[in-house]
Specification:
two-stranded antiparallel ribbon, Arp2/3 complex 21 kDa subunit ARPC3, mainly alpha, 2% strand, single chain
Amino acid sequence: MESINKTRNLVMTAMFTALITAGAFIKIPIPVCPFTLQFLFTTLAGIILGRNRGAIAAALYLILGLAGLPIFAGGGGIGYVLQPTFGYLIGFIAGAYITGAVAHGGALSVRRLLAASFAGLFVVYAMGMCYYWLISRFWLEKPIGLWSLFLYCFLLAVPGDICLCILSAVLGKRLLPVIDRKEA
């Protein structure tokens, strides 16, 4: 039974890595940072897989992209670390971890899953915006003002991600009992 659970965990982690990858190709172009479904799948990874395996799924996605696979919204390769939006990708790892930690910290209610999703959203945006500001200022030497940063890297993108938080909580509440039943 233990080998079945290990295999199941590997398959589920790989599946979420693939879903995060697919989410990068489903995008709506908005200025500065395109809206994608990556956040939906990293949040669901935290909810369904838990904090450690959710973060591992997001980290595998990041490693594959940095290794050269063109799976990020704007390509791939090690040079991507110099892209201003790379901080959001790092944030996906931390966001999945925080989402999983909050989601599995008590009874799995829609309210808890919503709180978990919004906690992950906060982490992703905090890391993404800080990285964007730092890279723009110190690497690109094209500093972005705080209002512009807030407008382009938060205000324009967050309404869609709020919807994804709600969708993640609802899907998580529906999927977790089905997935746990199959585990027994």
